Amino acid sequence: MNARKYKNLKLNRGVLLDRGYVFVRQFHNGRPLARKCVGRISERNVILANMLVNKRNEKRHLGKLGYDAELDSMTIERACDLFWELHASRLRSAYSYKFFLKGIKRFFAGRLVQDMTYLDIQNYRQERSRQVKANTVNREHGVITTLFHKLSEWKRMGRPELKDVKLPGENPGSLVPKVNEKPFRRKRVLTPEEYARLMEHADEPLRRAINAALHTYLRRKDLLQFDTSKNVSGDAIIGIQSKTGKEYSNPLSPELRNLIETTDGNRLLNMSERTLERKFKLAVAQAGIKNLQFRDLRRSSATMALNHGASLSTVSSYLGHASLRMTEDYVGALEEEKKKAASIIGQVYNTAARCRTVVKTVVRHFKNTSANYTKQIELTI
């Protein structure tokens, strides 16, 4: 297959379409040397091949003028390495950043930072959405946006690595909207009936872990690191969240105090993360409970507290969230509670309507009675 156009895209001289793949012809001293495969025939790969040819031609023309075109260009791979070195490696979520940057480098291999546009981000989202969930694509999209934001910031600060590097006029990541994650957020809650079944099939260490998760509102990592000699102060538990780095301080409940007093040593839970996960999955399967994870226990506590009268601000403080909006998105609303709210509204307004009807009936009856009584008096006279 060889054509000068592909879906209204003009093919530059040196770009070939052959047997389902896109190739770029390479030259040496003006003679064709070999063909470099860009990938399967697609709109993205054709655009990439055209850009590679344009860049090669530009470099050749500038070279004749004694200008080194490599000084003002930076590949995405080098930009990702610089981003990791100066920023991402110092974050608490460095492991996630490392994983995301690896995929970004692989997808945009050979691309220059200055040539990136919002179309490349759209293509990236389309390709990744076929492989991973929407919230993961949003996370990777956010990393790309932060990458270009940091490059612009470092260039303004005069970093020597970016002194002569050209950057896009606008951040390509910020020009592409993200998908709304609300429909994909997890809302699983452990019901009281499921809790009873789960405790029947759990051994003593796992029961302690489940009750500790429900009464502390802590994440699994913080729960496994909980030290009774350091994280208990008077009538409260204190510490720093491993995920956010923010402090937490929650009061001791009688059940939690009993767990702390019956610990064997300083650790609240004497088991590894892998052991806890294995035991929990086994107990969930034996109890016949579907789609329940250990992280759902934290949400279950918050949801049940809200449903039984606790205020949203109190639950948000227990969870250690930065805002009430975050707590609303995290907890959500149960369908049973929605139905209850709808029935309450119906009862209120239906009651008001019935009262109005009764008043009208009484007034009408009084008027009729008065008219009949007046007629009887007139006849008597």
Share of residues in helices: 40-55%
Annotated CATH architecture of the largest domain: Orthogonal Bundle
The computed structural class is mainly alpha
- Supply Rg: 33 Å
The CATH topology annotation of the largest domain reads as hpI Integrase, Chain A
Question: Which term fits the overall shape?
Answer: elongated
CATH superfamily of the largest domain: Intergrase catalytic core
Mean pLDDT: 82
By DSSP, the count of extended strands is 8
Given as residue ranges, the uncertain stretches (5+ residues, pLDDT < 50) are 66-71, 377-381
Number of helices: 14
Main beta sheet: strand number and arrangement?
A: 3 strands, antiparallel
Strand order of the largest sheet: 3-4-5
Give the CA-CA distance, first to last residue. 115 Å
What is the count of distinct domains?
4
CATH top level of the largest domain is: Mainly Alpha
Please indicate the percent range of residues in DSSP E strands (runs of 2 or more): 5-15%
What order do the SSEs take from the amino end to the carboxyl end, as H and E? Answer: EEEEEHHHHHHHHEEEHHHHHH
List the keywords.
4 domains; mainly alpha; three-stranded antiparallel sheet; 8 strands; disordered C terminus; DNA polymerase, domain 1; hpI Integrase, Chain A
